[in-house]
Amino acid sequence: MAIERNPGIVDPADFLTKAGIACRIVELAPKDTFFSQGDAADSVFYLQQGRAKLTVVSEKGKEATITLLSVGDFLGEESLAAVPGHRLSTASAVNTCAALKISREEMSRVLNDEPVFADFFLKFMLARSMRTQADLVDQLFNSSEKRLARTLVLMAEFGKPGERDVCIPPISQETLAEMIGTTRSRVSFFMNRFRKLGLIDYDGRIKVNKSLLNVVLLDQFPGDTTHRPAIPIVGAILKPIAPVVATMLKPVLPMVATIKRKMAIGAPRL
Known about the structure:
The protein is of the alpha+beta class. It has helices at about 10-20, 105-115, 115-140, 145-155, 175-180, 185-195, 210-215, 235-240, 240-250, 255-265; strands at about 25-30, 35, 45-50, 50-55, 65-70, 75, 90-95, 95-105, 200, 205-210. Helix 2 crosses helix 3, helix 3 (about 115-140) runs antiparallel to helix 10 (about 255-265) and helix 5 (about 175-180) crosses helix 6.
């Protein structure tokens, strides 16, 4: 979900390391954790290498994967809320990862003192908000088969700037099942169907073919000429989940307001 680079920041990682910002590089092996659910929310991470995932565990011990993160994503931004609290999820490495770790206090200072970086971070937060809404819509209105197709396409990062590898990082069918809200046996069935239709290949690693985009964008499988109903108006789709999204974004709204005020003050007057 990494956003396009701000013209004022050629490389966010380079900016963070060279602008006198106190941060350190952390390296994680697969399955190592950046932070765990219930930990004090005291730092933010910027992912430079590898893939990470966010998971939550219920009181009964059931684990669910919320989302996967890639290079250019921030982790733990909830620590910037007006009132610091505890981590609501666990962030762990899917494969070998490297990230910049920035304390809550230092990140807050940078957002106040560096308008260009504040603008970049604000765009990231808005992009994440849009992704969260899209994930909720996908979960509520799409079939589990289409949810799996969308998840695979997102992991392959089609449409992102630069050359991307269509072989997604190693991921188990159990994790995919957690992400789309179905069983491992259903994921296995769908994966076999996708392979037979030429949408994916896998021999050790899953290779996603761009033809899978048709399933996500057009809701149409190869050879399927069935007429599809018009897509509902976006506003009508989002209306029932708006309160949920508002609740999720509530902790970061004070931070966004501060950034906007800082940018307004620093803007040149005509």
